[in-house]
Amino acid sequence: MRDPYALSRSDLEAAADLVHAQMPPTPAYVWPLLGERSGAEVWVKHENHTPTGAFKIRGGIVYIDELAKCGAGANGVITATRGNHGQSIARAAKASGLASTILVPHGNSVEKNAAMRAFGARLIEHGKDFDEAKDEAARLASVEGLHMVPSYHPALVKGVATYALELFAAAGPLDAVYVPIGMGSGISGLIAARDALGLSTEIVGVVADAAPAVALSFEAGRVVATNSAATFADGMACREPHPDAIAVIARGAAEIVRVSEDEIAEAIRLLYETTHNVAEGAGAAATAAMLKDRRRQAGARLGVILSGGNVDRPVLAQVLAGETPIV
Description:
With 327 residues, the protein is α/β, with parallel strands linked by helices. It folds into two domains: 9-55 and 154-320, Rossmann fold, CATH 3.40.50.1100; 57-148, 3-Layer(aba) Sandwich (Rossmann fold). It has helices spanning 9-20, 32-38, 57-69, 84-95, 110-118, 130-144, 154-171, 185-196, 213-220, 243-252, 261-275, 281-292, 313-320; strands at 28-30, 41-46, 77-80, 100-104, 122-125, 147-148, 176-180, 202-208, 255-259, 301-306. 55% of the residues are buried.
């Protein structure tokens, strides 16, 4: 049986056609000032430039397309999120004429919540974190007859893999690419694209010290859950990884790097200073990891995934003032 997370080049190109029908490829640039700080040639993949401000939009486009083709989801779709996945599903559902319900935890990003509502979602706040919101979404799906959209699925991976296809087309072979990990679709798509293109690029996953479940699972070779994921980089706030994601990461990633809250905040400031781009916490995490990974820097060709720029204004103001937000 074929591995559903292994993609061919034709799979990637077909997914890219779907994605590019709704948005153009995002840019990948070498920023000289960022290179001066690292001693490497650093390609930044600007997924903060999508119509939702994050890479997740790609997965939603492909997932909802496949859902529509099989005639499912007529009663509407439901999912749980910290924001970017929810925007992706809400936007794609609206484009396909489907109703969407999005569950978020209490205290979620005000501006991400507003964006999801703007894309037509019914937004429900429930629980203290993503995992509690996810459980409530599953309950409501059963009660209301809605299609539950998971946070990790082959169609989502195939969609987000298109950013990696664009990156390698622009930059060519890279020595390593650093990518933040939440539930794992981003790194899985990067691994799938690297393998489909026959490249030897090392894929380095990045997690927050305060949300280490994926790193612990990678090290143990099995899913290891944590009691909390209290990071201001909410896109990486995972405390119970998906077993399929851990399997893909285990066989395809070179390593997982942990970064502190202070390092993430400093990377947001650095990206602003050197590229004048706004990065949310998860979006800056890859840069934070690249800067602390001295083994791969000198003279190397590196990629960092700026996975999103959806950070609330008060949080950004705090970070740019030199502070680190406390969750």
